[in-house]
Amino acid sequence: MNYPMNSTATLITPSEVMEYLYCPRFTYFLNVLKIPQYEEKRYKVQKGREVHKQRLAQNRDYIRTKIPMLKKDQNVYLSSQRLHVRGIVDEVLYLEDGSLAPADYKFSIYQPHLYKTHQIQTALYALLIRENYCKPVSTGYIFYLRGGYRMHEVKITRQLELESVDVVGSMLSIIEDEILPRRTSYRIRCADCCYKNICV
What we know:
Elements: H1 14-22, H2 25-32, H3 43-58, E1 69-80, E2 85-95, E3 100-109, H4 116-133, E4 139-146, E5 150-155, H5 158-177
Parallel strand pairs: 3-4
Antiparallel strand pairs: 1-2, 2-3, 4-5
Helix pairs in contact: 1-4, 2-5, 4-5
C-alpha cells in the first residue's frame, strides 16, 4: 500500500476526511485558511457529542450479543505519522478470533445503504488501530442512534484501505499546495455549509 508521502507533520482526522468527501473546499477553508467551523453552534453536532458522552458512560460493562467480543477500550486517541491521520475511536473492540475492530457511534438515522463516507472513516480508524495495537483488523462497526439502535458492519477490504489512503493524500496536496479545489457538484450541500458566505 502506498501511504501518503509528506514532509510535514500534518495529521488529518477521520472527521475532516468526511468533510472533504462532502466538499473538498472544507479542507481548504479549515486547514489552509484556518477558518474554524463554529460547529459547536449546530444542534446536531451538540446533540451528537452529548450522546457520545452518555453512550461511553452507560456502556462501560456492556458486552454486545451481536458481536463476538471479549472486551473493549473506550474513547481511545490514536495517531500515525506514517498515515498522517489522528483521531479518537469511540471503542476498540477485542473480538473472540484475536482481531480488533473499531466501533463508531453516530447521532443519525440508520439507512439500509452504507455510505462510502462512513466506510472510509471506519477504514481509517481500522488502520490506526492496526498500527498502534499491532493486531489484525478486518471489520468495523457503526451504530446509528436515532430512530432505534441499529448497526452496520464494515468489511475492511484492501480496496477500501487503498481508497482511504488516497483520500488522505488528496487532502494533503490541498494543504501543501494551498490551492482552492473545486466545490462539490451537489449544490444542495451548500445550503447548510458553514462556509457558504465566503465560498465563491
